[in-house]
Amino acid sequence: MTTSAAVENASVTRAGVLIRTLDQGLWSLGFFVFNVTAGVSLTVGEFASLSVGAALGFIAVGTSRAWGIYAPIVDAARLGVRPENSIDRSSSWRGTIAFATVVAVAALLWIGRGGEWGYAGAVAALPGAMVICDLPRQVLIIRGRYSRAAWLAAIYAAGAFVCAGTLALGVDSAALLPMWLCTLLIVLTIGIAFCGNATSTIKSESHFSIAWRITAEAVYLGIGSQIATLLLYLIQDDTATAGIRFAYSLVFAPAFVIIQSIQPLIFKQFATLSVQGTRAVLPVSVRWNIAVALGLGACGLVGYTALSTVFSDIGPATALPYVVPVGLAILSAQTFEVALMATRFFVSPVFTHRARLISVLVDVGSQSIAVFIGGAMGLVWTLIVLSALRIAVSVAMLVVLPRRDRTETA
After folding, report:
1. What's the whole-model pTM score?
2. What angle do CA 97, 204, 280 make, to 5 degrees?
3. CB proximity list for 43: less than 8 A, separation 6 or greater
4. Dist CA 193 CA 66 (whole Å)
5. I want to staple 349 with a disulfide (CB 3.0 to 4.6 A). Which of 190, 213, 227, 393 is the partner?
6. Spatial distance between the Cα atoms of 35 and 340, rounded to a whole number of angstroms
7. Which residues contact 309 (CB under 8 A, 6 or more apart)?
8. How far apart are CA 94 and CA 198, in angstroms?
9. Cα atoms found within 13 Å of the Cα of residue 369, Cβ hemisphere only
């Protein structure tokens, strides 16, 4: 690559990061405003139910992305094809619709078990819509059409502010979910138009093996990251359920904006650098982990200070006992995710699949025992211990990674 081409490429990358940050910032702002509006206008029990719906939605969104976005990228990279040309439109949509249906039914059964099937049905529609609406944005992001993705995020944020303003004027809180769903439907319609009919049929012989393992890993990851909310709701601790959700969606929201905006670009960079060997991937993963740790630390400090002083007498203050354990849980999950991304291009899919499965089994098992024995405080201490262990394992994986080049060339 010539010097002028390298400078131009760096400029494009910086522009892409800025637009992606704006995109994710607007998308997260929309979710933030909808979430705060729900926290203020709904009862604690209703907000806890909504938190469960959102938690299940996050699991399904991650699963859908794994099947329709990340698996094709990994498969295409092994064939030397760039990520931008890897998405199979038909396969991605089939998977997305299937995951949306499953999560809607799961949310209906989980929330409606108490007998309030009407409200449960309204809440259950939300995670299904979240899953379907996510695909067009992710396709645009991978194809490098960051400005179009940002437009979708801007529409979502605008819808959230319209909803908040409507409820502030005295409209009944029952209008919240219909307005949220209508906003997602508008975003979906425009997103489909933006994506067009472009598709790819590039698949290796091991495509299905790669796809189902990466998808299974996403299920494991999603369950592990959301199990606390689901368990606390199961034992009917609505205050703790709301507190955990506020810690995730309010205190660490700014860090999520950066992480979620840049991480797809990091994944694309790993795919591109993988042809140069592990030594090219390792420095990127280390720098990204350091940046994530600093961002989460800053959010936690500012959030804890604000909740304990300025906002100490309102609902979000229920997040105070969970700021530290949730922050550590997010940091350890992101560190582990980067370690798996860095190794994925150099090892068999079986390795990363088993690593994710073991991690989630430990997560779910220990957190379930902690919640049913020690309640919310049992969960807090378990999150702290698990986070320390996961960070140690992630660092060990990154230390071992460069040795693969030496092994393969020996």
Report:
1. 0.73
2. 100
3. none
4. 23
5. 213
6. 31
7. none
8. 16
9. 7
